[in-house]
Design goal:
By secondary structure, the protein is of the alpha/beta class. It folds into two domains: about 1-75 and about 200-240, no CATH class; about 85-190, Nucleotidyltransferase, domain 5 (2-Layer Sandwich). Helix content is about 50%, strand content about 15%. It has helices at about 1-15, 20-35, 40-50, 55-75, 120-130, 150-160, 180-195, 200-215, 230-240, and strands spanning about 85-95, 95-105, 110-115, 140-145, 170. The protein has a five-stranded mixed beta sheet with strand order 3-2-1-4-5, sandwiched between helices. A hairpin with a 2-residue loop joins strand 1 and strand 2 (about 95-105). The protein is globular and about 55 Å long. It starts with a helix and ends in a 5-residue tail after the last helix.
């Protein structure tokens, strides 16, 4: 009983001060991060269901709950394998190109991502360090990347510092990276529908939500299939201690 009250209190604090119920908020957040849709289109969809809301409110929900969804999701992911496929793609933020580092394993399961203003060895090291901290990743056996000269430098320095396994092998072969390059398309499709980003801060938080929902739909969550929509909705609600 005490544990149930604590869970209810946490849920109330998470959604405290919001005008709408937690169920409505999570419904909007989940659908925006899952499908290529704009804030204004989602506003109309909600109004059709009797929820009178402004698209700017939905934007604030995404900024508040997308990174929180990513954080709460990580401990529930299946372990990835040790064959990493690493690549970066371009993302426009307020008229300027930034770089989204992404990695998947040989089965296409998402390892991690990082939005960076620069494309150099320091950015590559930040990305590898972030990926290695995740509970569902292992020290890579192989790292497959393109011909970006920053990767050999980053891998060598991290091996010397003991951050990477000394027998990790870097392969710079573009055609072996088709898996991650194809995976970029999903992110780009969502970004186009969302009409881009106004700042680096909002881009980073929204992208965290995109990637979190992608991991759920790929079937990376333990005991939940990638096409089990009702089960996925229940799981997201449970992450926030809300009854689905």
């Amino acid at each position: 009983m005490a544990r149930r009250r604590l869970a209810t209190l946490r849920a109330a604090l998470t959604f405290k001060g919001r005008q709408f119920t937690a169920e409505v908020i999570l419904w909007a957040v989940r659908w925006y991060l899952m499908f290529p849709i704009s804030y204004r289109d989602l506003e109309l969809m909600l109004q059709e269901r009797g929820v009178d809301i402004a698209h700017t409110t939905i934007f604030r929900w995404i900024q508040a709950y997308a990174p929180e969804l990513d954080r709460r999701l990580r401990p529930h992911l299946r372990m990835s394998n040790g064959s990493w496929r690493v690549d970066e793609t371009y993302v426009r933020v307020k008229g300027r190109w930034t770089y989204l580092y992404r990695a998947v394993d040989s089965c296409g399961q998402t390892i991690d991502f990082l939005l960076s203003a620069k494309r150099d060895a320091e950015a590559a090291k930040r990305f590898f360090r972030k990926a290695l901290r995740q509970p569902h990743t292992v020290n890579p056996r192989t790292i497959t990347a393109d011909k970006n000269p920053a990767y050999p430098c980053a891998v060598t320095e991290m091996k010397e510092g003991g951050e990477l396994w000394r027998r990790s092998r870097l392969r710079q072969c573009k055609y072996l990276n088709n898996i991650v390059e194809q995976d970029h398309r999903r992110v780009k499709r969502l970004i186009r529908s969302g009409l881009g980003f106004g700042s680096f801060y909002t881009a980073r938080r929204t992208l965290a939500g995109y990637e979190a929902m992608a991991m759920i739909r790929k079937g990376q969550v333990r005991k939940i299939g990638g096409r089990e929509m009702r089960t996925q909705a229940t799981f997201v609600a449970e992450l926030f201690q809300v009854a689905a």
